[in-house]
Amino acid sequence: MTKVAIWCREKTENLIGVGKEIPWNVPSDSRFFADVIAEQNVVFGRKTFETIPKQVLEKCEVWVLSSLQQEDEQMPKNEHWLSDIRHFKEFEEDLYIGGGAQVYDAFVNGAPKLMPDIIVDCVYSSEINSKLEGEKITITPCVETMRKKYFKITDDFEKDGVSAALWVKKGDFVEQSVLKRLLLLLENR
Ligand SMILES: NC(=O)c1ccc[n+]([C@@H]2O[C@H](COP(=O)([O-])OP(=O)(O)OC[C@H]3O[C@@H](n4cnc5c(N)ncnc54)[C@H](OP(=O)(O)O)[C@@H]3O)[C@@H](O)[C@H]2O)c1
Fold first, then answer.
1. C-alpha 179: how far from its chain's center?
2. Mean pLDDT confidence for 116-123
3. What is the reported pLDDT for 107?
């Protein structure tokens, strides 16, 4: 029932990607992302899904948003493709929103019932890989909504140039067990 968005954005431009890639490499942050989504329902846009190593998703229920439908007998049983985001309005289990920008925006700035209850806001403030070519992908509208409609409920947890904090939607009850799980993961990052 609890929706959690998790991203790592670059500090000055809210950049999350260049073309298909994330323009930095912080192994502890990638591990943290994998730990947060482990054994959970996680939703990605098709473009991000194509970039995530399969072993990271082995123990997740993976939901892929796309207008292209995949009906393939070879497809892993834990992979579900769907074209209509409204499926998640009444989703009865916890859901982790793993990006990219189109998907964060559809949840954070979409219908109220889609809005994440919690945002795990990781902020990278070091050098960007400038050799990557492709469109710069940013999430400024999501960050603006976060600042307006969410409370920051933790201090910043710093590790390897990434500062992470939890934000909770104003005015809503938040499931304490989910918060506790995220806090533990943050502390042990
Ligand atoms: N730094 C981070 O934390 C982080 C996290 C995740 C991703 N990223 C980066 O973000 C970039 C990708 O982001 P992106 O915005 O370009 O793509 P994306 O959100 O990953 O995927 C976009 C695709 O998802 C599908 N889609 C999105 N919204 C939909 C909706 N409401 N209903 C149905 N289908 C929907 C469409 O697929 P079809 O075209 O198949 O219809 C669309 O083309 C990459 O650079 C990736 O590395 C960074």
1. 15
2. 98
3. 98
* Dist. CA 102 → ligand 1 center (Å): 5
Residue 99 Cα to ligand 1 midpoint, Å, equals 6
Question: What is the amino acid identity at position 145?
Answer: T
pLDDT score, position 75: 87
CA distances from 4 to 12, 45, 155 (A): 23, 15, 18
Q: Pick from 24, 44, 46 the residue to mutate for probing ligand 1's pocket: most ligand atoms within 8 Å of its CB.
A: 46
Instruction: Map out the domains of the chain as residue ranges.
Output: 3-186
Asked if pLDDT for residue 71 goes beyond 80, the answer is no
CA-based torsion, 136, 28, 147, 118: positive or negative: positive
Q: How far is the CA of 150 from the centre of ligand 1 (A)?
A: 23
Residue 70 has pLDDT above 80, yes or no: no
Question: Any residues with Cβ below 6 Å from ligand 1, and which?
Answer: 7-8, 16-17, 20-22, 44-48, 51, 65-68, 83, 85, 98-103, 106, 137
**What pLDDT band is residue 67 in, cutting at 50, 70 and 90?**
very high
Ligand 1 atom at minimal distance to the Cα of residue 8: 3
**Other CB atoms closer than 10 Å to residue 5's CB: what's the count?**
25
Q: Which CATH class is domain 3-186?
A: alpha beta
Q: What is the model's pTM?
A: 0.97
Q: Give the DSSP H or E segment for 64.
A: strand 61-65
Hunting for tokens 């993976």 — which residue is that?
62
